[in-house]
Specification:
With 753 residues, this protein is an alpha/beta fold. It contains 26 helices and 26 strands. It has an eight-stranded mixed β-sheet with strand order 13-2-3-6-7-10-21-20. 49% of the residues are buried.
Length: 753
């Protein structure tokens, strides 16, 4: 297989089967054999004499040649004991205590299986309304979102994959203003992406500056009015501040609802690209467009014959996934098979443009997007009809909007999903996003700076005799080729990065793909930190006018800080201990060397110290660090009323205390704890620590400095804090916003799966 070393590392860490001790038990090739064999066996349900070995070989070849990859759960679980192959699900949230907590239980089972969930909270009665059965008042949808969030957090603590949620509220719900700001005013909804469900009526009122009705979900009666433009501006302001909420256009989702008799589409999966009815699941896969290029006389061209063959086989593959999937709930199994929706998408589009010499932000780029996606859509529907000839149409076909045409095996065929981890495996750009950075500096051993370069750019520079390490460092520090004047203008025009692409071109490209996509397009519109609220509003309005089904924006330097420190090296300053500390450390070591075992000295009767309150990702942590004449001897913690991880924080404090009283150097303890990262801090505004252990380390460090200098020392921000850069909670590298999600392109971490 022609995969990069980085891809191999990601596969070994996240995808290959392991034994109970965490040891890898299969090869990369073995993974694809496992997946191909499992998915091919579905053919036996329709033809007892099917040649599944031959089909498995074709599936294996398609994946190992990196022409197509299914979504991550399929790669992870096909042929394994779990067998859950779907990425995301939508669950209904009805307005009764019993049904709300039933939904929470169902979500927990889905998260346990590795899936994400989407919810609409629009059916819940607003805060303060009367509950007739009890005579009390309703707490409203926001309070229940916090309950869902807490349940998700509990599953995450005990599992190996993150639970991701989408929370949606209709713009005409009476609690809409509280919903818009719910993630800027509180920290209890950290496991949700949120989007406002926008109606056509609301958008027309917003553009005209008119009022609109707020509707009580139970009675369907108007209970108030708001100015639509003012509400729209509040949505824009919140998104400008921290990237949320996004917006989805509900009427457009339901305009394309293939089975309207089954109910309205009210929600999507956590990244916004797969509208689903309650209890449906998304079964996704992506074609690598780089592998769909041919080359003749030194020039690249789109090989539509190869693309068509890949589409045919990929549709067959995804339809088989529906049959071999072990769904987490029986009702999901039944509902999914009623419509048999699949979502075939693409990745590597930006790389395809580079190889063809077409700028992303150009009419030619938009035109190519329409041409490629229209071909995939038409060929995919043809393949689905061909499957229906031998397997039958999806069960609800006769009551669907498609009933007047030829029978279809799948109610929907195309979706543009985020492909963060899949694109790492394939070694291409993510989904339909522009390239985020062409070169960046990574820290390696001995503080050496290593410039990593986009392979297509490197090949082009080498072919032109322009490549040099010095140039790569300059590109990395600039963050773009746009201002590297020694490079040819033609090269700078084609090799544009995400921040060279204006928000308008981001939306136009999304709209181009949406035009030929059954479901929706997952994409992030990136803004520079200098962007204004008016520019965000312009993008939302443009998305509405150009036919998008929703839009997600992210402005650099907002809630999650600058996405990627292009050009900066992640270094940490060396801490130099004072002479007294060194002498004390050496004395204790000499004393302990005379013993057969290390024993901590007794806790002193009287100590001095300080207690510091630190804001963490899920509340407040109170850290007490005590010392006597021999140095720091005790650390203990207490969490605020909003929770946290009290047992883990206490354990960290106890182990630090016993280590300190055993003569372990305080700087060693600080070094071990400082920099540990927790997922709950990655989307928090104003975070000055990365986790509870990191907070403990920083307080110990502060007390140690106070001891040495005999004066209080102000908190010195870590370099990451100064830069405002969010970091991956697993590997510590910078994360990027792609496809409506947060992805680490180093280790494959994704917030959405």
């Amino acid at each position: 297989m022609k995969i990069t070393q980085n891809a191999r590392v990601v596969l070994e860490k996240r995808y290959l089967l392991k034994d109970e001790d965490g040891r890898v038990t299969e090869t990369v090739e073995g993974l694809f054999e496992r997946v191909a064999d499992t998915i091919a066996r579905a053919d036996l349900q329709y033809d007892a004499g099917a040649d599944v070995d031959a089909l498995s070989a074709r599936f294996y070849e398609m994946m190992t040649e990196l022409r197509f990859l299914p979504n991550s759960p399929t790669l992870m679980n096909a042929g394994g004991p779990l067998g859950q192959l779907s990425a995301c699900f939508v669950l209904p949230v009805e307005d009764s205590m019993e049904k709300i907590f039933e939904a929470i239980k169902q979500a927990a089972l889905i998260h346990k299986s590795g899936g994400g969930t989407g919810f609409s909270f629009s059916r819940l009665r607003p805060h303060g309304s009367t509950v007739r059965s009890t005579g009390g008042v309703a707490s409203g949808p926001i309070s229940f979102m916090k309950v869902f969030n807490t349940a998700t957090e509990a599953v995450k603590q005990g599992g190996t994959r993150r639970g991701a949620n989408m929370g949606i509220l209709r713009v005409d719900h009476p609690d809409i203003l509280e919903f818009i700001t719910c993630k800027t005013q509180a920290q209890e909804i950290t496991n949700f992406n949120i989007s406002v469900g926008i109606t056509e009526r609301f958008m027309e009122a917003a553009l005209a500056g008119e009022d609109y009705d707020l509707v009580e979900p139970h009675t369907k009666k108007a209970v108030g009015r708001l100015n639509a433009r003012e509400v729209f501006d509040r949505i824009v302001d919140a998104a400008w501040r921290n990237g949320e909420p996004g917006i989805i256009f509900l009427d457009r989702l339901n305009r394309d609802n293939v089975v309207p008799a089954q109910g309205e589409i009210e929600s999507t999966n956590p990244c916004g690209e797969q509208p689903l009815l309650p209890y449906e699941s998304c079964n996704l896969g992506s074609i690598n467009l780089v592998e769909m290029l041919g080359r003749k006389d030194g020039a690249y061209y789109v090989d539509y014959e190869k693309l068509g063959e890949t589409v045919d086989l990929a549709v067959h593959f995804l339809d088989n996934v529906i049959d071999v999937n072990k769904y987490p709930l029986d009702i999901i199994d039944f509902t999914t098979k009623q419509t048999r929706k699949i979502g075939l998408g693409v990745m590597g589009f930006a790389d395809m443009l580079l190889l063809l010499g077409i700028p992303y932000n150009s009419e030619a780029g938009v035109t190519l997007a329409e041409q490629v996606m229209s071909f995939i859509a038409a060929r995919g529907k043809k393949a689905s009809r061909r499957l229906a000839e031998t397997r039958g149409a999806f069960p609800l076909f006769e009551e669907s909007t498609l009933r007047d045409g030829a029978p279809m095996r799948n109610a929907t065929v195309t979706t543009i999903a985020p492909t963060g981890t899949l694109s790492i495996i394939a070694g291409v750009s993510s989904g339909v996003e522009p390239v985020f950075a062409y070169a960046y500096v990574r820290n390696v051993m001995d503080q050496t700076e290593l410039a990593e370069t986009n392979s297509i750019l490197r090949a082009e520079l080498e072919a032109r005799g322009l490549y040099s390490d010095e140039l790569m460092h300059k590109i990395a520090h600039e963050g773009t080729l746009a201002h590297i004047t020694e490079l040819p203008e033609e090269l700078r025009r084609v090799f544009v990065s995400a921040h060279d692409v204006s928000p308008v071109w981001h939306v136009r490209m999304q709209a181009a793909f949406q035009k030929y996509t059954d479901n929706a397009v997952s994409k992030t519109v990136n803004f520079p930190s200098s962007a204004t609220r008016e520019e965000v509003a312009e993008v939302y309005e443009l998305a509405y006018r150009t036919g998008c089904k929703g839009v997600t924006i992210y402005r650099d330097g907002s809630r999650e800080g600058q996405v990627l420190n292009i050009g900066s090296v992640n270094t940490e300053a060396k801490h130099e201990g004072g002479c007294e500390a060194c002498e004390h450390y050496n004395t204790v070591r000499e004393q302990l060397a005379k013993k057969d075992v290390i024993e901590p000295r007794p806790r002193p009767e009287v100590v001095s110290g300080l207690t510091e309150r630190v804001k963490i990702g899920c509340g407040n942590l109170y850290i007490t660090v005590n010392y006597d004449e021999d140095g720091i001897c005790e650390v203990f913690t207490n969490t605020g009323r909003h929770g946290g991880c009290p047992s883990q924080s206490e354990a960290t404090g106890r182990l630090a205390s016993i280590a300190l009283r055993s003569g372990i150097d305080v700087e060693t303890i600080i070094e071990q704890l400082k920099g540990i990262r927790c997922p709950s801090t990655i989307r928090q505004q104003g975070m000055k620590v990365m986790s509870c252990p990191d907070a403990i380390a920083r307080t110990i460090e502060k007390v140690a400095k106070m001891q040495r200098q005999q004066t209080p020392v102000e908190h010195e921000p870590h370099e990451d804090e100064q830069a405002g850069s969010p970091r991956c909670p697993e590997c510590g590298e910078a994360v990027a916003h792609e496809g409506g999600c947060v992805i680490c392109r180093q280790c494959g971490y994704s917030k959405c799966n």
